[in-house]
Amino acid sequence: MATQPPYRTKFYKNKREGKVNGICAGIADYTGLDVTLVRIGFIIALFLSSFSILPVYFLAGWIADDTPRDVALESADERRFWQGVRQSPTRTARDIHSRFREIDRRLADVESFTLNNNRSLANEIERLR
Asked: What is the pTM assigned to this prediction?
């Protein structure tokens, strides 16, 4: 039976970098925040809620999946990219589209330079068409 690839936009708990259940480390991975800030925020929320958030924390630790190996081993650039996708998929798609437009423009410039400065290459390309 084939296994599903890991979803890069899903929340996973991070037991490798976590202290208790890995929920704060998972939130930090998911949002791109520093794990220390997430832990401090959780402690503040814990006291402000009179410890009523504690069952939610352990429930999240019980329900959430562990980070798959493929997701855990990705580079920092990949991690930043997927955090951007989670924050705003539309903006990320626009960024990718503009990058491809820029690459296409640069490739057209290279092609134009090559064909204008090398008539024998241009004639060879025309003959192959």
From this structure: 0.56
